[in-house]
Amino acid sequence: MTFIPPGAKISIGSLDEHSISVEAQYNPKELQIDKSVPWQKHNKANANGLQLEFTGAEGRTMSVDLLFDGYEEKSSIQSKVATLETLATVRDESSTKDEMRRPHHCVVVWGTVMGGGDNKFKCVIEQISTKYTMFSSDGIPLRATVTLKLKEAERLSMAASGDSGGTGGTSGTSGSSGGTTG
User: Fold this and answer.
1) How many angstroms separate the CA atoms of 29 and 131, rounded?
2) pLDDT per residue as tens digits for the range 23-72
3) Is 103 among the domain residues?
4) The pTM of the whole model exceeds 0.85
5) How many CA atoms lie within 13 A of 106 on its CB side?
6) Are 145 and 81 contacting, i.e. CB atoms less than 8 angstroms apart?
7) Of 147, 142, 132, which is closest to residue 69 (Cα–Cα)?
8) Hey, is 128 helix, strand or coil?
9) Given phi > 0 = left and psi -120 to 50 = alpha, else beta, which region is 113?
10) Where residue 87 sits, what CATH number does that domain have?
11) Does residue 167 belong to any structural domain of this protein?
């Protein structure tokens, strides 16, 4: 089963539980994708100057602001924010299965930047920050901006720390071993 995005709005969904997804109410005005290329100083001194060594590939990172606005309809936007927080939360910390003791493996889809096929941005949520900017007279949140920081990850695995507490790590390269695929 594959996550199928709704329409042409940016959407983020779980590759682990396909029923969990959020479609942005409005497409973001900008989307930032960064890719680090790791270089280190080479140990050997070179008479011609500094020598650099490529140390391996890293996944891309993405930062995006999503605006949710229920003012016109006088409806709460809390359920959309809660769904994004669910995607960033450990699925079942008491489970004996490693894949359940980590947050969701997600996919972001939007237009041709992150469209169909192999161009989907498979990722994990590294950080979620919510700024509530409007409330009803009852205190119901009517407008919010959610900033997501995402890290590309083709496969996920648990940290090899021997810690049975269930805190998991991610591997951002497609060549990592022992993970589950999405």
Assistant:
1) 17
2) 988 889 888 999 998 888 877 666 666 788 888 888 899 999 999 999 99
3) yes
4) no
5) 31
6) no
7) 142
8) strand
9) alpha
10) 2.40.30
11) yes
